[in-house]
């Protein structure tokens, strides 16, 4: 909950001043971006920013919000989450920078923070920043996130570095495999920002249908157990999203999820919450 | 790098653990005999069965060793490398 | 409660599952990721790194050159900081302290204010704050951007890679070297940075030893002592280099103490296996120089400075009060110094230094001004200073004040440098340690262990020096 200075024109059309100042920009879409700094008041959508450490996640955060969170070139740098705001076209977004993690399964502190936000904060869109030069490792996290939420945009960052390293990536194939939009970008030089904003808007408004890839488990007994438990979850918590993932975590005995079951957190999530135009800050 | 990509004849490869890998050799991970969160962490970093791996650098003090695996350079201490089973492709 | 029936069901289903199914689940995700990657990425030259990265690594992690560059780089950072900050610091202090202070007094003089109000506000609060700004802003504005450039470049993980074996032998986590380096900026930041260490045992070791990284609040002390007592021993042409070398030596001692204390802790109260760890060496990235300068200036420098000012203002008030409030014919400060003097003598320091460290618990930055002020107030008045006024003196005058009015020797200076390395963390750091550990026990250990070490080491050097007839 950062400074809640009421800004005039909060929900009005984009101020022309911003585009005028940026009239000579090479990227005209991005000219519709309004960096709002720490001002997250009256946002229409919550966007979570996830990704492995050292993928340029903070660079994306800074590019969108106009804030200057420090970016360090070593793993585990961002240990606390930051919040910022940006406006694009007619809508205002609150961007939540999650700690950089390699996965959501290793039970470390930052992974718990990231996972809890994705699960209980129910962001409208989750942008996963991916290092194009280390796709496999980064996809581990993408796939794990896709088990939790399908409202994902993959920002395929450091694409310039990948080209320099002699890698070429078929992003359309990747998007098909994952079932969510994939946006190639080079955040350090602000390339691809326009396409990212576009994709965020589309997923937020639901104008593009995502069909997140769900991983089915090879072992038949595991698969059956997951399905059985997921069905019971859905009976007891109607409307609960990502029951398969919760079922799997419960089978694994994840203490955080077990707590969510007993303390009523799941109950709250099961009541059909309006996704668009949230008035409250989720997750707090 | 040398001209050692693919094409090593079957049977010419030897099974060992990662700490025995020598510079210049290329190996494939066969199993990760480490348990708990560290197993996950290694897999997060790309060390999992099927990954090709070779030594990139050894720390000036002799340990740890940095390996190149799936495009990233990962430093592992020797006792940890001991738990990673590999087959070495012939040079 | 429906919740419990779900948990029961989960437990029953779990029993029917093969052992290790958890790993299988993860591995099925990972093999999926591997398959998708293989079908979407084409590599031109399989499994190689850019030649420049390899070349840089070959140099920066070389048996000889790796350590040589490490030493040189850190020396260069300190030297730039010390020599580059001297001019701007002098300028700021002449503006803020010399002119600003007398101007404020001139403005305040006609106002119907009691003496103690203008004394407390102008001589106490304003002067100490101005001093902290003048002394801290320039070095921080140089140090942080330089350090950030190294950080952005990707150099820090290489340092961790080079030093890891030492940390492994000390029973510590390899990433402790990263939090240690953050500590050179600010210990509170260093303590927070230990979150990258998963094992609680190793994280506690990293937290307790972080205080042995000389934070920038302590440099003014080290730099001043190095300049006026140690650099002065060398011929003028070499004085700057010798002074920088003495500061680097103390910082290096800090690394040694870190390793020793880590080792001792891991052999005693924090026993356990050193957990396996994996450190990634990220690709080198050319730092964006201008953006880095701007960001680190705004972000880090001003943040740390703001904290210093917030802490310095009340401390300045305290110093003014204890030297001006008189009880039984002497100021409170004089009484306190009298009580602390015997202990100070044993440690090769003096009562004034110890009192300064008590006052400066909230902010180490004001150690030197407090010492100077107390020395001039309580000793013979050489420069016609007012009671409890923090003086800004040139280095030559400072030397005169300390040796003539304070009776300082080389031993006092050396031990002050050692004590500056080995004493309790500042209150912000203690608070951060509490927040990170939530443990009264470990917060106490982290607070008291360094000061106990400081007492032991300085008492030892003082005794040796006296027995050898050096002091």
TrEMBL record, chain A:
Residues 44-206 form the FeoB-type G domain. One of its GO terms (cellular component) is plasma membrane. GO terms for molecular function: ferrous iron transmembrane transporter activity; GTP binding. This is Ferrous iron transport protein B. It holds the Pfam family FeoB_Cyto. It comes from the Bacteria. SUPFAM superfamilies: P-loop containing nucleoside triphosphate hydrolases. Gene3D superfamilies: P-loop containing nucleotide triphosphate hydrolases (3.40.50.300). It comes from Actinopolyspora mzabensis. Residues 268-284 have a biased composition (Polar residues). Residues 263-284 are annotated as: Disordered.
Automatic annotation (TrEMBL), chain B:
InterPro entries: Fe-transptr_FeoA-like (IPR007167), FeoA (IPR052713), FeoA_core_dom (IPR038157), Transcriptional_repressor_C (IPR008988). One of its GO terms (molecular function) is transition metal ion binding. The keyword Iron-sulfur does not apply. Keywords: Iron. This is Ferrous iron transport protein A. Residues 16-88 form the Ferrous iron transporter FeoA-like domain. It holds the Pfam family FeoA.
Automatic annotation (TrEMBL), chain C:
InterPro entries: Fe2_transport_prot_B_C, FeoB_GTPase, Gate_dom. Residues 248-296 form the Ferrous iron transport protein B C-terminal domain. One of its GO terms (molecular function) is ferrous iron transmembrane transporter activity. The chain crosses the membrane at residues 64-82, 125-150, 219-238, 244-265, 304-323, 343-363, 401-422, 442-465. One of its GO terms (cellular component) is plasma membrane. Pfam families: FeoB_C, Gate. This is Ferrous iron transport protein B.
